[in-house]
Design brief:
Layout (H helix, E strand, L loop, with lengths): L13 E2 L2 E2 L10 E4 L7 E4 L8 E5 L6 E7 L2 E6 L2 E6 L3 E4 L1 E3 L4 E4 L8 E5 L4 E7 L4 E6 L2 E6 L4 H24 L24 H10 L6 H11 L6 E2 L4 E2 L15 H15 L3 H11 L3
Antiparallel strand pairs: 1-2, 3-6, 3-9, 4-5, 6-7, 7-8, 10-13, 11-12, 13-14, 14-15, 16-17
Helix pairs in contact: 3-5
Length: 287
């Protein structure tokens, strides 16, 4: 994964009876391609579509310096040339803000050690897009990981992704004359190219026989996340199952028992109870 550091340039100017204070010039922000949205993106000589392609960006570990942010386009340094790329296909590595109290972990996994809890409003420096939906950040000279959806800029980008997906689903439904009342959730009830496939009969039996930690709040969340389906899949981030857990918590094709246990563990660690998780979901639209 790509890492970058900001260097401070300071200069002191001394003249008779006047002392100039040192000033910090932070390096420009940088960007890396968002592989969830595009496998490769055209680099252009102008901030517009047309016959102006200079090259292609496909390496998710290589970052490019931003020279300016121009609406839907980013002006970048591409191999020493002035170039432009469509902003929506990139992650911007720069300062960001924590939007709710969140665990600051030593590894990009849900079961890793919690270094501390970062309060809402904490400003961090994003240095790397890591695995399992986490990003590496630096705060007070310490490096660690937080989940991307808990950062202001990443949250907005994720919301835009989901809005685009919902619009696409709605358009497809209209084109196929699907009833307007049909839900347009971003998850898809589809088979994927994963090698694992759970037999339908076995899945049905497991759903009927397994009983996890249950409460009205848990069911409330499940209905809003997946309509209660153990096979719901959201390709934007790989969220799977009844509780739409991220890939660091459950794998694609996880059994109902595995999903229930993972969801109970996640909620217990993060909220303490399903009731507390429900209250958070009701206020924020996610949990």
């Amino acid at each position: 994964m790509f890492n970058f550091k900001k260097y401070a340039l300071a200069a002191a100017l001394i003249v008779p009876s006047v002392i100039g204070f040192s000033a910090k010039d932070a390096d420009a922000a940088k960007v890396i391609i968002d592989k969830e949205l595009a496998s490769a993106v055209n680099v252009r000589s102008e901030a517009k579509m047309g016959d102006n392609v200079l090259g292609l960006i496909s390496n998710a570990e290589k970052a490019y310096e931003i020279k300016s942010n121009e609406g839907d386009w980013l002006h970048i340094d591409f191999e020493g040339k002035d170039a432009y790329v469509a902003k929506r296909f990139f992650h911007i590595l720069d300062e960001d803000k924590i939007i709710t109290d969140t665990n600051f972990r030593n590894k990009p996994t849900i079961d890793s050690e919690v270094i501390s809890v970062l309060p809402a409003g904490t400003v961090v420096e994003v240095t790397e897009v890591a695995e399992n939906g986490y990003v590496k950040v630096k705060v007070n000279d310490k490096e660690g990981y937080v989940y991307n959806n808990l950062l202001e800029t990443f949250r907005k980008a994720n919301e835009n992704k989901y809005a685009t997906q919902a619009t696409t689903n709605t358009s497809n439904n209209n084109n196929n004359n699907v009833a307007a009342s049909q839900p347009t959730q971003t998850y898809e009830y589809v088979e994927t190219t994963q090698t694992y496939q759970q037999p339908a009969q076995q899945t049905q039996q497991a759903q009927q026989s397994y009983q996890g930690s249950s409460s009205w709040a848990k069911e409330w969340i499940a209905q809003r996340e997946s309509n209660g389906s153990y096979t719901a899949y959201n390709p934007n981030g790989g969220y799977y199952g009844r509780y739409q857990l991220n890939p660091s918590l459950v794998h694609y094709g996880a059994s109902p028992a595995e999903q229930e246990a993972a969801a109970d563990n996640y909620v217990a660690q993060r909220y303490g109870s399903w009731e507390a998780a429900q209250q958070f979901w009701a206020a924020n639209g996610w949990y």
